[in-house]
Write a structure and sequence with these properties.
The structure is a single chain. Helix 3 (32-40) packs across helix 4 (50-58) and helix 6 (135-144) crosses helix 7. Strand 4 (89-92) and strand 5 (98-101) form a beta hairpin. It contains 7 helices and 8 strands, in the order ααααββββββαββαα. A 4-stranded antiparallel beta sheet has the order 1-8-3-6. It has a 4-stranded antiparallel beta sheet with strand order 2-7-4-5, with no helix packed on it. The protein has a single domain, classed as Jelly Rolls (Sandwich). The chain has helices spanning 2-9, 14-17, 32-40, 50-58, 109-114, 135-144, 146-165, and strands spanning 61-65, 70-72, 80-86, 89-92, 98-101, 106-107, 121-124, 128-134. The protein is 39% helix and 21% strand. It is an alpha+beta fold.
Length: 168
């Protein structure tokens, strides 16, 4: 704690600051307005009103993870929905069926809806900052915003169609 205090007050020289432990990969914090802006760009939420997007933003947490972190493991239960703010991730459905997710992409909604296992493994390729909605909050949100449920179902239908068309 003393080290952090000394860095903040400027009493530790710049050359030694690089050796200080870091718990954040990205500068600044994600504000409520940032969350709203990111969520408005998610196709899954395209049919939501501004008021509904604000409600979603209120139940959203921000996390940062280092490269190599497994965010979801195929066959494991899923309890979170993720929206990538910064960084990228690798999605592995099979050894031959892989893809990459960039900022703005999201994953985890299927397990939240049906309580089933994750359909893919998702691993951080770089340090990442993500918006996260926990399962219990997601269920409450769907009960309070039935039109969101319709939007999610349409998105899932499109994803299934795309998956069926992709060779694997």
């Amino acid at each position: 704690m003393e080290l952090i205090s000394r860095i903040l007050d400027g009493s530790i020289p710049e050359s030694l600051r690089a050796a200080a432990p870091r718990t954040r990969f990205f500068g600044g914090r994600v504000t409520q307005d940032d969350k709203i802006a990111r969520l408005e760009a998610v196709p899954l939420l395209a049919e939501c009103t501004r008021r509904q997007i604000k409600a979603v933003a209120r139940i959203t947490d921000v996390i940062e993870v280092p490269a190599g972190t497994a965010l979801a493991r195929q066959g494991q239960p899923g309890n979170e929905f993720y929206l990538i703010v910064d960084g990228s991730a690798r999605v592995e459905v099979t050894p031959r069926k892989r893809s990459r997710l960039a900022p703005g992409a999201y994953f985890g909604e299927m397990s939240l809806l049906d309580g089933g296992e994750r359909s893919a493994t998702v691993v951080a390729e770089t340090p990442m900052r993500l918006l996260v909605i926990k399962r219990r909050d997601f269920a409450t949100l769907l009960r309070e915003a039935p039109e969101l449920t319709q939007s999610i179902l349409a998105t899932l239908s499109r994803r299934v169609r795309q998956a069926e068309q992709t060779p694997g």
